[in-house]
Amino acid sequence: DFLAMSADPHSEATYSSVLALRRLGRDAEAAARTESLRAWVDELEAAPAVVDYFATSLPSLLLFAEDPAVARRRRVAFLRAQLDVLDGAPDRARERLDALLADDPHHLDALELAGALHPLLEDAR
Asked: In tens digits, what is the pLDDT along the chain, a chain of 125 residues?
């Protein structure tokens, strides 16, 4: 996936890829992709936060300067919530999303996933 001016083996879109593979009946590929995503998220969380190379070419006065460590922490939290859904744990995903949205109420991906969780949570009850 290509995000933030760099190619990565995974991104937030990997979740949709896994869902598509499952719908196509390619469960083994979906499971392998999920486990690969899980390992990548673990690596992402352990890696030090750095400023992207291309961000160094931006003007020195940014209107909104985002802390790279905070951005990475939020990204990891969202990716782990996606993994929770893929693992069939919507309650745990909801807890992660609630914490993420308390920290960043305007996180669009988290808002979208939280909305999609509503039917899953009702089915589980």
From this structure: 555 555 777 889 999 999 999 999 999 999 999 999 999 999 999 998 876 655 555 555 555 567 888 989 999 999 999 999 999 999 999 999 999 999 999 999 999 999 999 776 666 55
* DSSP-derived 3-state class of residue 6: strand
Distances (CA, A) of 90 to 49, 86, 97: 29, 9, 10
- Beta carbons of 17 and 23 less than 8 angstroms apart: no
The closest alpha carbon to 110, from 98, 92, 122, belongs to: 98
Q: Which helix (H) or strand (E) holds 3?
A: strand 2-3
pTM metric for this prediction: 0.81
